[in-house]
Amino acid sequence: MSIFKVRVKEFEEIFAQDVIELKQLRRHTFNGVPDVLSFRALSWKMLLGYLGPRRSSWATTLAQKRALYKQFIMELVLPPGHTQNGAGNSDDESRGVGLQDHPLSEGPESAWNTFFNDNEFLLQIDKDVRRLCPDISFFQQPTDYPCEIVVHSKGEQGRRLHERVVPSVLSSANVERKGLGVTKQQINLITKRSAENYAAMEEGQEAHWEVVQRILFIYAKLNPGQGYVQGMNEIVGPIYYVMASDPDLSNRAHAEADCFFCFTALMSEIRDFFIKTLDDAEGGIKCMMSRLSNMLKSKDICIYNHLKSQELHPQYYSFRWINLLLSQEFPLPDVLRIWDSIFSDEKRFDFLIKICCSMILIQRDAILENDFASNVKLLQNYPPIDINVVLTHAVSLA
Question: How many CB atoms lie within 10 A of CB 276?
Fold first, then answer.
């Protein structure tokens, strides 16, 4: 029996259990999930805490969460005063929209005022998701399961988020693309972003990027203290791809809701990366970069001293590596494989640091020969490599 077939059998046995043994699931997922059946989607849902270990609870959990997400769409996405059947304002009270509320109202309690003020962060979301993974066609393609209450607008403006975007000048930094087109957050080294911009679908249809836009919009609305930060689109993209590619059509039909809750769970663990005021906190990005520097120093003092002498500080490259869980450095299939291992890590981000350290150590000879500019280019545009080489090296780091 081939190694692949053995691994498939292992996952079949794991998910056949009435109560899934999480330690066993972590161990097998760490070594990579076979890209068949619903193994990856199920594994990620469990490892991110969306589904519990008891199989008998899954149907209830999924039904409740998916119903809750539909409610979020009704309350946070649809224009104030909307009813599902389009007949009057009978649901205004349940949606918190008073009959006296008017689209021209400027009062702080006005749902319409909030509706129009959402444009500031919606503009950035729209800009980012329209360029998600341009080297593959997936996000530009129509989903087979569009949100019916959104795409059938019957002439009502505002249900589809991209229709509400009012162009204005953005104050955010320019970014660059690599690999499958994910955005690169840069510090002090800024280049131009791709001019690619996806088109929206006609009435009755929506592209996958439009679905991702709605997920991020709802997340930002439910987390006003954090809102939307550029780069979150690169975290949600791979999760959505996995859920929306599930061979089980009954699950694929609910990819949007399932992705939202998995994304929310992951963001609860890495949200400190996206909050500047928490940069110096224990779980903040500066602390994580410091951990990487300390590991590099202990594993190879020569590389550490060489980069230090060139004043090539970790924030020039590892900020993006860590902040976006390496989603920018490798093709999407490799990112999925990396995330199998990261999500399996009980300490979660210990292995991420080991992967980052391995990426540097593997390029040892080139780094020691290069000048500052060449090393910046090398680390910001990591060379193509068999991802298994990187992961195997990371495992070897004690």
Answer: 9
End-to-end alpha-carbon separation of the chain, Å?
Answer: 32
Cα–Cα distance measured from residue 123 to residue 139, given in angstroms and rounded to the nearest whole number = 18
Q: Which residues of the chain have pLDDT under 50?
A: 85-100, 104-105, 169-195
Nearest to 387 by CA among 349, 317, 321, 332: 332
pLDDT at site 129: 94
Return the residue matching tokens 């020569």. Answer: 302
Tokens of 99: 């009959």
**Contact partners, residue 245, CB within 8 Å, separation at least 6:** 41, 138, 252
Residue 116 is predicted with a pLDDT of: 63
Radius of gyration of the chain (CA): 22
Tokens encoding 359: 């990426």
For the CA atoms of 310, 311, 314, 319, what is the dihedral angle to 10 degrees? -110
3-state class percentages of the chain: helix first, strand second, coil last, to nearest 5: 55, 5, 40
Alpha-carbon distance values, 355 to 198, 252, 279, 370, 385 (Å): 33, 31, 21, 22, 13
Distance CA 51, CA 59 (A): 10
What number of other Cβ atoms are within 10 A of residue 254's Cβ? 19
E strand segments, 78-175: none
Place of tokens 């997936």: 138
Residue 235 region, left (φ>0) first, then alpha (ψ -120 to 50), else beta?
A: alpha
Q: Which residue has the tokens 């609305």?
A: 221
Query: In 3D, which of 167, 257, 146 has the Cα closest to residue 209?
Result: 146
Using DSSP's 3-state secondary structure scheme, residue 375 falls into: helix
- Beta-sheet strands, E only, within the chain: 176-178, 182-184
